[in-house]
Write a structure and sequence with these properties.
The chain is mostly beta strands. The protein is about 0% helix and about 65% strand. The mean pLDDT is about 95.
Length: about 110
């Protein structure tokens, strides 16, 4: 934060209930974001409603970038927080098919 008393990443921490629209398929689910041991990072769980975990890095006052690889799938994207609303834009691929998604959730 401005006076270094509050970590910028803290605003991302929470459980977000939302909906996702992808090039192939839509879904409703929950994403949880918790503090990481690194002060500029967060750990994000249930990406793609498939229990995928990603590490997010704070890239600005209200933005993060994230990526991960799990169970043969790789994914990466960006996130923005506005108030209590989280927006994630990312692509996910299993090596054959690639899907582009936008998740919007509120805590």
């Amino acid at each position: 934060g401005e006076d270094c008393k509050v970590l910028v990443r803290d605003q991302f921490i929470g459980t977000y209930v939302g909906t996702e629209q992808c090039t192939t398929g839509d879904d409703s689910y929950t994403v949880t974001i918790v503090a990481n041991s690194d002060n500029v990072k967060v750990t994000m769980t249930n990406i793609y409603n498939d229990n995928y975990t990603a590490i997010g890095t704070v890239t600005g006052d209200n933005t993060i970038s994230f990526n991960g690889s799990q169970s043969g799938a790789t994914f990466s994207g960006t996130g923005t927080i506005t108030g209590s609303q989280l927006k994630l834009n990312y692509t996910i691929s299993d090596g054959v098919l690639t899907n582009t998604c936008e998740f919007i959730g509120n805590k």
